[in-house]
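Whiteboard transcription, Tuesday session. T.W. wrote the structure tokens on the left side:
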């Protein structure tokens, strides 16, 4: 009953002070809103399970790690997967494999030939993930038992809706994938988007259809040395990830003894919860980035709390008489504190409600930073149930944090002077500032930490944009094709690509053109290994050099402006059947294989059991292949004529705007084959968004948060100085009556604000030095004591603080001495 009375009374008091309520609620809404938004984003990246999966806490991912060098193998060969699945029954309820695949979709409509992405999956994937079907069923064991015998497909809910008009009679009908009929046996639930986190898969096909759908070799399921597949599993009830890791590591050791030439040496199996395993070797960076983001917005919330606490302390002065009367009438101090805390919690809950609306807007804005890639990104950043509970908890905690100390201070006034209507006057510097001054000092210090971090991320992003990726990013257009999707055999595909490059190079406005199967700094890559000199012995299992590999056509290096250091480009003579096959190395791999020697003309080998001999015909300069901040990586280029890949990207260097060449490029493709889909069309600058999206988002958000912290700190400083001026009106009047000039008063008040600012800057610099060392690994070319940042940011903050002090200080110079002497 008393709680209801406190709530009603608190709402009345907040309505009576609309200005105070508005400012306090806005400050809290900003602080809580950015915290909820960032928590929701972090949750989406590292906490939320795969959508549409039943009992996700038991779902895990698996990978192998060697003891010797810590190298991680995240993909399995099919024979290894089968052995692990069959020998893990004691710890795993089930283990499934999956692999992404693209297909040209056709169902007799105008959009025939549209390329969609799906997954090849083992028959038990839907059972392991406990995925429900919207229509039909999943796969039967016999449908994934033998190669190329059961052409069945499960459609995603999105594809079923968008391409098939949500046809409830779709089951048992056929759709064409790469020109072959597949019978629809099911439609997945709306929430399930596939076993690949954040990417929306449009269809699912049994793994044993890999040869027909993806064009794999006939005996792909027997090749223990070729690692293609990701795995996902479900723990048995009562089994921990550590127990599963130990049990599966025993399996790994048995397989190493049984297949010493095809298994990594000294490999241990690692089993982790699916959210942790989705980042592979980037898990540490993601965790650090998440912690940093939450830490920065946490500082902003503390600044907002200090601001509101200052407002409450000032408001308590105007409520001294009310509180004094209640105490004189017998109210206990605890009763007064509870009432004041009720009001502060009401403020925080209202601010939290508005903050939640702000969080939806911020998370929606964050999606604009997503990179341009070929897949459908299904990552949902909007606040979910977990974020709603977080907002409620933060709101309640915030109400206690900023409300407790002001409530305790306001609940112990000198009752007798208050009842007489006397206004207490400050005595001395300590009383003049006290808690309010300490709160302002903390605001300035925290704001400096946030601003320094923001400046470092902005400078890092600018530096990242200036890093030379090793290839041209301007006036370049790229697009993807895959003749294999349209039934082209190897020789047909090579002839199609030869004619396409000739036609594109002949287009007006085109300087050069070439083909590559993996664009550098993209979302995918391919690796070969071990690779070694032909005059050296075969490396032991688990040792030797691995290298990234790309299949390219003549003209690719010219189109991407990757300069040739020595030797030659691929030529017509580098055709299938010519041995040894020609390869081109990057400088790093050439130096590692032949230090202090010329690599051109030398031979190397790749593989262990049946090594292939290759001849180096050229060396090109290094580029960035996986990330802009990477150390130099090994890279090898092979000829498309000799190492054919069906899926390729055409790279076109233009004289003008590359985007304007898109219609002409499409026309060239349609001239050769009107059915051929051209997809993932983008400029190289758009392609670079994959390499820069995280830095771009970090810089943009941190700068916005820095400016918010600056505004809150300036507001807090202004309120303290303005309050001090109002409390010292009589003192100022006496000083002016005794001959003090307006300039003297201005300097006196400004000195007070400057003192608070300088103390806050001193504490803030210490905190910023600590914080910059934490984030150093996330930055490009920014030192932990960058002088331009550690000098410029404090000066900018001091200038804003001086302005916030000047306004109330100037108002103090307008005090009328006669009015001030009568002020009580």
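and on the right, the sequence the group agreed on:
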């Amino acid at each position: 009953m008393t709680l209801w009375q406190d709530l009603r009374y608190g709402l009345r008091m907040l309505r009576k002070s609309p200005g105070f309520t508005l400012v306090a609620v806005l400050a809290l809404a900003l602080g809580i809103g950015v915290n909820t938004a960032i928590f929701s984003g972090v949750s989406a990246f590292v906490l939320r399970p795969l959508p549409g999966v039943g009992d996700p806490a038991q779902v895990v991912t698996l990978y192998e790690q060697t003891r010797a060098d810590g190298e991680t193998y995240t993909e399995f060969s099919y024979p290894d997967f089968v052995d692990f699945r069959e020998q893990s029954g004691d710890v795993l309820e089930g283990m499934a494999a999956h692999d992404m695949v693209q297909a040209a979709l056709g169902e007799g409509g105008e959009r025939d030939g549209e390329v969609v992405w799906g997954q090849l999956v083992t028959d038990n994937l839907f059972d392991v993930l406990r995925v429900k079907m919207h229509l039909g069923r999943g796969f039967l064991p016999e449908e994934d038992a033998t190669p190329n015998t059961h052409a069945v497909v499960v459609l995603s809910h999105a594809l079923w809706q968008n391409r098939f008009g949500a046809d409830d009679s779709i089951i048992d009908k056929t759709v064409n994938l790469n020109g072959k009929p597949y019978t629809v046996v099911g439609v997945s639930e709306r929430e399930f988007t596939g076993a690949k986190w954040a990417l929306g898969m449009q269809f699912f096909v049994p793994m044993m259809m890999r040869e027909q759908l993806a064009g794999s070799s006939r005996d792909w399921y027997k090749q223990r040395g070729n690692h293609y597949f990701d795995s996902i599993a479900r723990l048995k009830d009562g089994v921990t990830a550590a127990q599963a890791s130990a049990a599966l590591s025993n399996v790994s050791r048995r397989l190493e003894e049984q297949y010493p030439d095809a298994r990594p040496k000294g490999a241990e199996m690692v089993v982790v919860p699916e959210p942790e395993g989705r980042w592979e070797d980037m898990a540490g960076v993601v965790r650090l980035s998440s912690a940093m983001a939450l830490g920065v917005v946490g500082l902003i919330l503390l600044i907002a709390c200090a601001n509101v606490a200052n407002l409450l302390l000032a408001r308590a002065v105007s409520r001294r008489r009310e509180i004094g009367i209640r105490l004189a009438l017998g109210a206990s101090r605890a009763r007064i504190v509870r009432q004041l805390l009720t009001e502060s919690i009401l403020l925080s809950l209202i601010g939290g409600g508005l903050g939640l609306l702000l969080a939806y807007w911020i998370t929606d804005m964050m999606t604009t930073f997503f990179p341009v890639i070929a897949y459908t990104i299904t990552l949902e950043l909007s606040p979910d149930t977990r974020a709603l509970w977080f907002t409620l908890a933060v709101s309640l905690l915030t109400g206690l944090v900023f409300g407790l100390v002001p409530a305790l201070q306001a609940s112990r006034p000198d009752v007798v002077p208050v009842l007489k209507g006397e206004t207490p006057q400050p005595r001395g510097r300590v009383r003049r500032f006290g808690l309010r001054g300490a709160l302002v000092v903390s605001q300035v210090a925290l704001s400096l930490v946030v601003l320094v971090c923001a400046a470092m991320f902005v400078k890092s992003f600018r530096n990242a944009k200036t890093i030379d990726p090793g290839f041209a990013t301007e006036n370049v257009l790229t697009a993807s094709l895959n003749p294999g999707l349209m039934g082209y055999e190897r020789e047909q595909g090579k002839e199609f690509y030869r004619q396409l490059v000739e036609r594109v190079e002949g287009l007006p406005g085109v300087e050069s053109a070439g083909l590559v199967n993996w664009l550098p700094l993209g979302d995918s890559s391919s690796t070969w290994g071990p690779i070694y000199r032909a005059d050296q012995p075969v490396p032991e299992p688990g040792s030797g050099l691995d290298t990234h590999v790309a299949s390219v056509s003549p003209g690719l290096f010219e189109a991407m402006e990757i300069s040739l250091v020595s030797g030659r480009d691929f030529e017509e003579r580098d055709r299938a059947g010519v041995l040894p096959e020609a390869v081109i190395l990057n400088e790093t791999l050439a130096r590692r294989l032949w230090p202090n020697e010329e690599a051109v003309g030398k031979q190397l080998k790749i593989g262990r059991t049946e090594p292939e001999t290759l001849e180096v015909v050229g060396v090109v300069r290094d580029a960035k292949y996986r990330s802009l901040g990477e150390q130099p990586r090994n890279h090898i280029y092979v000829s498309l004529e000799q190492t054919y890949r069906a899926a390729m990207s055409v790279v076109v260097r233009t004289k003008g705007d590359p985007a304007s060449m898109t219609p002409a490029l499409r026309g060239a493709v349609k001239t050769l084959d009107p059915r051929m889909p051209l997809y993932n069309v983008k400029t190289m600058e758009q392609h670079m968004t994959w390499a820069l999206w995280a830095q771009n988002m970090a810089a943009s958000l941190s700068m916005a948060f820095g400016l918010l912290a600056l505004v809150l700190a300036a507001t807090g400083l202004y309120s303290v100085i303005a309050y001090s001026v109002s409390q010292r009106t009589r003192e100022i009047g006496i000083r002016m009556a005794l001959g003090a000039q307006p300039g003297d008063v201005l300097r006196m008040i400004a000195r007070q604000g400057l003192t608070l600012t300088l103390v806050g800057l001193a504490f803030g610099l210490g905190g910023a030095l600590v914080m910059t060392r934490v984030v150093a690994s996330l930055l490009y070319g920014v030192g932990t004591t960058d002088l331009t940042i550690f000098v410029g940011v404090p000066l900018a903050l001091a200038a804003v603080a001086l302005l916030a002090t000047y306004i109330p200080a100037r108002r103090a110079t307008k005090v009328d001495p006669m009015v001030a002497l009568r002020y009580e």
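Someone added at the bottom: The chain is about 50% helix and 15% strand.
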